[in-house]
């Protein structure tokens, strides 16, 4: 028979497994493409160019593509140039003045300043410096002052070809993360509602743990949305998506605030008296969970948010602590705590702050 502590651990493990499967599912296609590109770059340098150990060809391809679906051509090109610049400059220096502690400092200084001169991109400068250090610190693996630079160039060009031939909507990754993060909040609310209705504190603790584990996903969403917005300022082709990314950045901020508020509510619910009448709170949380799930679908598809607004307004109409009668101040405090995340969710659906607050019953 499971003890309460064992039940919480089992549910936490199930949550970790689900989150891990979600990350693998999102990363599978990008990783597969990067793996194929790295193998192709190595094969080209080995069989076509005749390099015995084309170490930097697959490294360059992997660095440029990575495991993320955020593959704007400018970013891939910037990384490729940075890797090739660092490798080529390091190769020339190593053949000219050798390798050693002071050569690393000189090479890093020169390669980084050259990268800053060529472009303002931070990734280009970072990769140029890192690869220059690697080249100076590694023994020579093949003859010629530019052999490894050629391998790095092959990897970068291969990565650029893959990114060009597999174009995608730059908003897709951020929207997918947003839908998953919002769904995680809906599941947290659903678990919390079930725990309150059945007076199962273990389920309430599971909901709180679920909310804590959502933080990484929220941060990934915010980072992806911010990167997409930044890219619209640099890439003319992505400029038409600026409003969409601004909305995604705003939604990520609102959902982060909502999750934090619901975590506070869950911590308060753990200490709720076992005989408290929490049916009305369970109904409020259950309705909020269903509305949040509608919002998740809207964010994932980038579709009309009207259905989500309507569902959230229906849930907000229940957030009236004065309607609870003699339920007690503890129960009323849970309703009060739910008002703030409902406002955040309404703002994430596109409501103005004023309209979101007006959707709540007056106190």
From TrEMBL:
Protein name, entry field: FUSC family protein
| Annotated membrane topology | Multi-pass membrane protein
Q: Which cellular compartments is it found in?
A: Membrane
Entry's transmembrane regions: 27-47
Keywords assigned: Membrane, Transmembrane, Transmembrane helix
Integral membrane bound transporter domain residues: 43-162
The answer to whether keyword Membrane applies is: yes
């Amino acid at each position: 028979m499971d003890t309460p502590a064992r039940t919480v651990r089992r549910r936490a493990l199930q949550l970790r497994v689900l989150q891990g499967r979600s990350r693998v599912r999102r990363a599978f296609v990008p990783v597969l493409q990067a793996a194929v590109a790295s193998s192709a770059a190595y094969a080209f340098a080995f069989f076509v160019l005749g390099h015995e150990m084309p170490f930097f060809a697959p490294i360059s391809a992997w660095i440029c593509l990575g495991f993320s679906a955020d593959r704007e051509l400018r970013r891939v090109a910037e990384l490729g140039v940075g890797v090739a610049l660092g490798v080529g400059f390091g190769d020339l220096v190593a053949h000219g003045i050798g390798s050693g502690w002071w050569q690393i400092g000189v090479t890093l200084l020169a390669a980084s300043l050259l990268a800053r001169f060529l472009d303002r991109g931070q990734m280009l400068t970072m990769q140029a410096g890192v690869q220059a250090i690697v080249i100076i610190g590694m023994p020579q693996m093949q003859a010629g002052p530019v052999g490894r630079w050629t391998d790095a160039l092959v990897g970068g060009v291969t990565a650029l070809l893959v990114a060009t031939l597999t174009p995608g909507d730059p908003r897709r990754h951020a929207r997918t993360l947003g839908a998953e993060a919002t769904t995680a909040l809906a599941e947290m609310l659903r678990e919390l509602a079930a725990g309150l209705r059945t007076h199962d504190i273990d389920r309430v603790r599971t909901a709180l743990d679920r909310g804590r584990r959502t933080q990484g996903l929220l941060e990934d969403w915010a980072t992806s949305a911010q990167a997409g917005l930044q890219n619209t300022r640099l890439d003319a082709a992505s400029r038409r998506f600026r409003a969409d990314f601004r909305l995604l950045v705003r939604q990520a901020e609102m959902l982060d605030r909502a999750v934090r508020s619901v975590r506070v509510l869950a911590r308060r619910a753990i200490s709720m008296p076992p005989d408290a009448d929490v049916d009305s709170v369970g109904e409020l949380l259950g309705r909020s969970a269903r509305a949040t799930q509608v919002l998740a679908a809207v964010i994932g598809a980038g579709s009309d948010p009207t259905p989500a607004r309507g569902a959230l307004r229906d849930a907000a109409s229940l957030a009236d602590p004065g309607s609870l009668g003699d339920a007690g101040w503890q129960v009323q405090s849970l309703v009060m705590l739910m008002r703030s995340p409902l406002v955040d969710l309404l703002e994430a659906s596109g409501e103005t702050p004023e309209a979101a607050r007006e959707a709540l019953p007056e106190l």
